[in-house]
Amino acid sequence: xxAVNLLPRDHHQKAVSLPSTPIxxxxxxxxxxxxxxxxxxxxxxxxxxxEQGKLDGLQARVQALPEAPAGPSAGATQLAGAHSARVSAxxxxxxxxxxxxxxxxxxxxVLPDDVWLTTLTATSPASxxxxxxxxxxxxxxxxxxxxxxxxxxxxxxxxxxxxxxxNVTLVSSTRDEVAGQPVVQFNIVADIRTASGSPSS
Length: 201
What we know:
This protein is 44% helix and 20% strand.
């Protein structure tokens, strides 16, 4: 028998040829670049999602904050003004306050044994006339007697150590005789130091 070829004539087996080395290298490089870009995209997407989560959390906290309180009403403002005026008036009154008990206690402690008083006049600085430099003090005035001018000088020096008195001034000191006893009559004046540290004006 004769062998018969049943395959079509135009279909012939051809040898399969592999791509060349440069093509393989290009394909591998493309695959690696694509993989790198994909990995970087995924990392950046994760960072963006994390930051978006933080932003959403901050926005939620801001929205949860209470509303800012309204400003003071007209009544509250008026009340604050009245309170300020009262505080100012009290401060002005306290600036001229005089602790008379302390002044008289300190005066009695420094008064020498050989000096006796005939008159004592004390005027509150709040109602005293203005005291200026060169004017004789009038807020605290004493008159009395002692046995010598040395006794008057000793009283003057002691009055000057009393913190509540200032501008201590000797007005007069004259010799006299009372019931046959020679004495020295004196008149001393001073200013009252107020809580502000100066005489009232």
